[in-house]
Amino acid sequence: MANRESLDIFGASSMGYAVIESNHLESWRSLFQDGIGLHLACDDEQAVAFRMDSHQRRIIVQRGRQEDFIAVGWQLRDQETLTEVLLRLKRLGIQAENSDPSEAAQRGVKEFWRIVGPKGMAVELFWEPLITDEPLTMLNAGFITGIAGMGHLAITSRKPQQMRRFWQEIFDARDSDHIVERIAGLTLDIDFLRVNERHHSIAIARLRDLPMDPVRTRIQHMNLLTISAGALTDAFLRCRKLGFEMAHEIGEHPNDREQSFYVMTPCGFEVELGWNALVVDEAQWQTTSYQGISLWGHRPEKTGTWRKLTTNLGNFGRGVRSLLKPEYSPL
């Protein structure tokens, strides 16, 4: 048996659930149930929750004022992996707090351990999800989950190196590739990290030579994968018919070859729904750098001059305001 110092947990973790706080529960229900096409698992005055597979909960939107993505549930393979992660956290001086039963039940897990991660986002560690065999009732034909998890997060940061350390030193994340994107005269560097066969579970974006963060929320987007081009197109048409703004219409990324669209959420971050993302073969994979985030498509729905001006001014204003407060990093 490998000793603890050399234990590699690559492939033993994945994104397990998402927790969002918002006072716009009705809009969230419309987006996820009627637009993206998830199964509505809970609907009351304080929260709405959704399924996409046998897990009792995958996305929870709880009532509150933050209007933000507040926690990601990070699933570990087994108790041994959890023990290893907790030991790493202790060595790094990061405190982990055990959940109470009501919190765990809300998230659809037996228990979890919470740490405060980069940008103040809670990372909730668990290994025993609550499973149900209740049939799914949803508009989408299905989602890709399994050992690679439910999706990925993209996060903007003024401390990208510390954020990379967090995912690499705690979860043995590996570099998948890098993209350089030019937006409104600025250069954006994006690093893609994987913790399993999914091309990336975390993407970290930073403005080159500018210590600003133009995104108000803790994440820039959350990604889910559906099972076919037809399911993707149907969800795109449903979201647009419901009146949700398309941040980026259907297009294809050069690195993971995923075809996807991005829809604006009631909190202001985006949800990306995609399909056909490649699965990494560790024996063959080589890290590559790309110019441009899209091979084709991914055009914004609103492209007028006034829209571009107000968007750029808004991003610049948020970037300037970000200079007035420190970005939290646990490392």
UniProtKB/TrEMBL annotation:
Cofactor: Fe(2+)
Family listed: Belongs to the extradiol ring-cleavage dioxygenase family.
Any matching Pfam family: BphC_D1
Source organism (scientific name): Pseudomonas vancouverensis
Keyword annotations from UniProtKB, A to Z: Aromatic hydrocarbons catabolism, Dioxygenase, Iron, Metal-binding, Oxidoreductase, Repeat
Protein name in UniProt: Extradiol ring-cleavage dioxygenase
GO MF term (any one): ferrous iron binding
Taxon lineage: Bacteria, Pseudomonadati, Pseudomonadota, Gammaproteobacteria, Pseudomonadales
Key word Oxidoreductase present: yes
Span of domain VOC: 14-128, 149-276
